[in-house]
Amino acid sequence: MRDEPDNPAKPPAGERLCALADLADPGARGFRFRNERALFAGFLVRQGDSVAGYVDSCPHNGWPLAVMDDRYLTREGDRIICAAHGAMFRPADGLCVAGPCADEHLRPWPVAVVDGDVVTA
């Protein structure tokens, strides 16, 4: 699952994903988009009024980060965690701070909060 600009399943800019109120604080939510055989998987992470989007792919092995829907955060809600190898990432910038991909970043998925909705940017 790669985030390439020509991925036909990646939603275009301006597509509504959800209401900000539908994301727990802190919280995360995954999204999957299909276009024929192409797949785009991403997730949102909310902390306060800040929402970041990332491609759902660990830099270490390319696998999705969560094994259960929307389970991207540690119990404390302060880190994104890869369920496969325990790598931990900062929610604000996707930097891996522990695990086999230390100092690498999650690939960003540009999103914005517009009029109370989270949309692709």
From TrEMBL:
Keywords recorded for this protein, A-Z: 2Fe-2S, Iron, Iron-sulfur, Metal-binding
Pfam families the UniProt entry points to: Rieske
Protein known as: Rieske 2Fe-2S domain-containing protein
Alphabetical list of SUPFAM superfamilies matching this protein: ISP domain (SSF50022)
Keyword Lipid biosynthesis: no
Cited PANTHER family: PTHR40261, RIESKE DOMAIN-CONTAINING PROTEIN
Domain Rieske: from-to ranges: 15-120
ATP-binding found in the keyword field: no
InterPro entries linked: Rieske_2Fe-2S, Rieske_2Fe-2S_sf
